[in-house]
Design a protein that fits this description.
- Helices cover about 35% and strands about 15% of the residues.
- It is α+β, with helices and mostly antiparallel strands.
- The protein has a five-stranded antiparallel sheet, with no helix packed on it.
- The protein is globular and about 75 Å long.
- It starts with a helix and ends in a 7-residue tail after the last helix.
Length: about 375
């Protein structure tokens, strides 16, 4: 080997290494004078974090300003009129607060999409598109048994929430693009809570039918607007001061697809989910009818379906063995028949919610 050549090659390699280190980079040499991009790495002590943070904020500000320049939707609220107070509940898709909007008591649902910078641009875009679609549907609804929609925000750094520590006077800032939905405040709690309170003494038959009619009328209205709720359960039903049911939580609701095969996937809550949903098969609005049948049983019994069974036992039992809650012998046949029809394994044999309303309306509540 030529010693002179070897020495020159060594000098070239040393020069490359020196230059790389001066630029804040370390390298691994794959070949003399050659550096592969996948073998390069940054030295943490040479990264200017302040500058990097400034560049990121500058980029986000440009993106947000473009969003701010778009015309306001008719359902967008004036955040200066919104005062968020205490937490009411933590749900699957976010946290619900009590608040006041323009002098009216409201519930504010903040969507929990994680902290800024965690989700990818594609994930954030998909979530925002889904949010916009949900709100576009909800703001057009108007029915006494559906929670009244007041408005929404697509996200802004102006939105603030009270601190977790009451001793702190300042507000905690939310992620800069947090989204929220504002609806009427319903003071009576959830139907689930009401049923638990009446577990021992049960409900008068007239109250059972009144609650069932409220829920069935609300669902019938949604279905008439081509909306499938997809998570019908007593926890998602609220009671107002007059014990009127208001359907809430449209987090997974969607406009019914023309082709049922476009609606698949397990969406809902175990115990209320129709067998076709549990099995991952195509479904339509009649998945809500099945869930209503379970709720009807729950309203009559003031009890929980399948309290002692595991997830696997309920899933396989409902799909493969026609597992359903046991109807008490004291339950009037007229009501028991509605339950059985609603939770029929064959979705096509289940009645429409409009038919369920008619069946409930003719029930004589004086028989009990």
């Amino acid at each position: 080997m030529d010693l002179k050549s070897s020495k020159e090659d060594t000098n070239v390699g040393n020069t490359e290494k020196s230059n790389a280190e001066e630029g804040g980079l370390g390298t691994k040499a794959k070949g003399v004078g050659s550096v592969s991009s996948k073998d390069m790495f940054f030295r943490a002590d040479r990264i200017d974090l302040k500058s990097l943070d400034f560049q990121i904020q500058k980029h986000l500000s440009r993106a947000w300003s473009r969003d701010a320049e778009r015309p306001k939707e008719e359902w967008e609220i004036d955040l200066s009129k919104l005062n968020i107070k205490n937490v009411i509940a933590h749900g699957t898709y976010g946290t619900v607060y009590r608040g006041v909007y323009d002098g009216q008591d409201v519930a504010v649902k903040l969507l929990d999409w994680g902290e800024d910078g965690i989700a990818t641009d594609a994930e954030t875009a998909a979530l925002r598109a889904s949010f916009r679609q949900e709100v576009a549907v909800w703001h057009k609804l108007d029915h006494p048994n559906v929670t009244k929609f007041i408005g929404a925000s697509m996200g802004t750094s102006e939105l603030k929430i009270p601190p977790k520590n009451p001793s702190i006077n300042s507000h905690n800032d939310l992620p800069a693009r947090a989204c929220c939905v504002v609806v009427e405040y319903v003071p009576g709690g959830t139907l689930k809570q009401f049923l638990i309170k009446n577990w021992r003494k049960k409900l008068a038959y007239k109250i059972v039918i009144q609650l069932a009619l409220d829920l069935s009328r609300g669902l019938s209205y949604l279905h008439s607007r081509k909306i499938v709720h997809r998570d019908v359960k007593t926890e998602n039903m609220l009671l107002d001061a007059h014990r009127t049911i208001k359907i809430a939580d449209f987090g997974v609701a969607r406009v019914e697809a023309q082709n049922p095969r476009d609606m698949t996937g397990e969406t809902g809550t175990l115990g209320y989910m129709a067998p076709e949903v549990l099995a991952g098969k195509p479904y339509n609005r009649r998945c809500d009818v099945y869930s209503f049948g379970i709720c009807l049983w729950e309203i009559y019994c003031c009890d929980m379906p399948y309290p002692d069974l595991s997830f696997v036992e309920v899933s396989s039992g409902v799909v493969q063995q026609s597992l359903r809650p046991e109807i008490p012998r004291c339950c009037p046949n007229s009501l028991a028949n509605i339950m059985r029809k609603c939770w029929d394994a064959n979705a096509e044999k289940r009645p429409d919610m409009s038919e369920v309303v008619k069946m409930l309306e003719v029930i004589d509540t004086n028989v009990c």
